[in-house]
Amino acid sequence: MKISRKTKIIFSCLLLTLGIFSFVFILKRGIFNNINFQDSIKSGISDTVPYLKKDSIKLKYTISNNVVYYLKNNGKYILVDSATMIPINNIEYDTPFGFNDGVAVALRNKLWGYIDKSGKEIVPCGSYLYVYDFQNGYGKVKEGNDNNSIRFGFVNKLGKLVVPVIYQDLSELNNNSSKFYREGKYGFVNSDGVEITTAKFENAHSFFEGLATVELNGKWGYIDGNGKEVIPAKYLECGDFHEGLAFVKEHTRGIQSTYLDLYGFINKKEEMIIPQIYFQAKNFNEGIALVEDEYRIGKFIDKDNNELCRRSFTESEYVGEGLIKFVDNMWKGFANIKGDVVIPAKYDFASEFHDGLCRVALSTYRGMGEPFFFINKTGEVIINNDSFSLVRDFHEGLAIAQCKVCSGSSNCHQGFINKMGHFCISPKYDIYDINTDGIFRNGFARVHDEKHSSTFLIDKTGREFCDH
């Protein structure tokens, strides 16, 4: 059979096209058996090319827009430029970690350090015995193997040690200061490594609204961010400031002319805004606080000490959005601020109201494992439990949820539902810490992709952004 000239031309063109596509594919993979093509792309990296040739690449882990981790056959990870597929360096890591504040923990040959999103080791692995995730722009580092020798410090995003590794414990940097523990006492150090107080307090809290509660010689008071004692340590007990007020307890004369340890509320000028007439007191929340008078009668008050309602149940708390959660014979219900029951006590579990909805369950702790569902402020079921094996509270109109059909599967992931109970962001993420992850704040939520060992932000449309 004779093949026409036209057919031969068409066939030749097809072969040429196939050859071009094959070459591009091999070029993009970064693996070429006999030609060091990367030398023509970027000079000075010929020593890194055999590194890719020797071990075939199995899996990609994105850590930023420009840098990815690649898993090699030997079980180690290398950092590669995502555009050119050229290794950034010859360093092999034991495992990839997600980013916090634009910095990730790095583990190489069982030695700990930090890398930034360019792949640079800002703290070389092995510099410290152990390192912790960055928070508020600083990473806590550790030295020492036993309780007597363990010490902590902080590094910044440039990898510079800003707080020396000399403290037996350090809290998270808050208000530009960290509470430290040394030789049985507490003090405060700022992010420049300057001790704003010596280690002189028997106890101390972290900063709230610019002031920290401290105990000195058995009495409590407050210091500011410079370590200055702005409210003397003279109280039997102090609460942290919330909404501009804090409860304090003193031994004082009560209504019945007997001396008792009673609570009142002060402002930051130490003015007694609400007199010391209460036997118990809790922090203010949305302008409402729970107190208990000398007669052990619980009531809810506002900031002018006006009684809003009496506590009708042995256990209750103000949970926001104008509602009080109470317990009656172990069951949870809700009352309004006047004390009127608006949702009967019939739930074994009840969270708090967020965005007008509350997550509840009828038999979570009764051994039946019934999933959660959502009710509104009248007790009407808005989202039932037919479709989800896991849900969390709403924040800014969205809630984390997991499909019931995938419950127990290793491929089960979480997404976000709206107030109609529909997935508006598909379930493809992993939520590690339900207290911090997957909660929308100012339009963004932090999520993880376990498969690619990535941590990033998403907006309410599901668009993904680097977590800087």
Task: Provide a quick synopsis of the model.
Helices cover 7% and strands 47% of the residues. It is mainly beta and 468 residues long.
Structural class: mainly beta
Strand content is: over 45%
Shape: flat
Q: Provide a count of the helices.
A: 3
Uncertain runs with pLDDT below 50, 5 residues or more? Answer: 20-58
Computed CA radius of gyration, to the nearest angstrom: 30 Å
**Approximately how much helix is present in the residues?**
under 10%
Cα distance, first to last residue? Answer: 67 Å
The major β-sheet equals: 7 strands, antiparallel
Number of strands: 40
Strand order of the largest sheet: 19-20-21-22-23-24-25
Calculate the mean pLDDT score and round it.
80
Task: Report what the structure shows.
- The chain is mainly beta and 468 residues long.
- The chain contains 3 helices and 40 strands.
- The longest helix has 25 residues, at 5-29.
- It starts with a helix and ends with a strand.
Features:
3 helices; seven-stranded antiparallel beta sheet; 7% helix
Layout of helices and strands:
Blueprint: H1 5-29, H2 38-41, H3 49-54, E1 57-62, E2 67-72, E3 77-81, E4 99-100, E5 103-108, E6 111-116, E7 121-128, E8 130-135, E9 138-143, E10 151-155, E11 161-167, E12 169-170, E13 177-182, E14 185-190, E15 203-208, E16 211-216, E17 219-223, E18 229-235, E19 237-238, E20 246-253, E21 259-266, E22 272-281, E23 289-293, E24 298-301, E25 307-310, E26 315-320, E27 323-328, E28 331-336, E29 341-347, E30 349-354, E31 357-361, E32 373-375, E33 381-383, E34 388-391, E35 399-403, E36 414-417, E37 423-429, E38 444-449, E39 454-459, E40 464-466
